[in-house]
Amino acid sequence: MSANTIEINRRMDKFDGHQQVWVFGYGSLIYKADFPYLERRPAHIQGWARRFWQGSHDHRGTPDAPGRVVTIIPQTGAVCHGMAYLIAPEVFEHLDYREKNGYLRVVVDIGMEDGDRGVAEGVVYIAREDNAAYLGAASEEEIAHHIARSAGPSGPNSDYLMQLAISLREMGKHDPHVFAIEQFLVDLINSGEI
Ligand code: SIN
Hints:
Blueprint: H1 6-10, E1 21-25, H2 28-31, E2 39-56, E3 67-87, H3 92-98, E4 103-112, E5 119-127, H4 140-148, E6 151-152, E7 155-156, H5 157-170, H6 176-190
Parallel strand pairs: 1-5
Antiparallel strand pairs: 1-3, 2-3, 2-4, 4-5, 6-7
Helix pairs in contact: 4-6, 5-6
Bound molecules: succinic acid.
């Protein structure tokens, strides 16, 4: 599959005719809402685990030296915490462009964590392992080293990691994978290695 997913995502007709659609964000979409939304609520999806396994050629790295950003992988019993946004369908044009480097829109059940705590069907952007920008598994220490040396048009890769970790902490959510990588990065900085 080509890395640029814009055309594939545009063809999704699941929510055609809807005035509003829920989108679940688990990475930069948690802390960088650079689009209009009608509601923003802490939420989770079940059966998915967050991993820094996706390459970023356009935001936190370059085509020659991609950074590492998050995707989610199916995992029985896992819960991925993030932020749900209620958007007008026109906003997908912006989101499809922003998430074009391998992310596909997938329909999921989103569990809301405030208000009525109900479940709503919505969209999550997932970078599957068959996309051209996929980097796959590495140890959390290796991932921290990779992030430490990467940067792209949206800024240093380390900012992406730190902002995600801060947001999860502010939401009271513990993600062992994200926090372990953050700790390795802090150790690297403190040791003067980077
Ligand atoms: C997301 O945040 O939901 C997708 C991954 C990213 O843009 O960081």
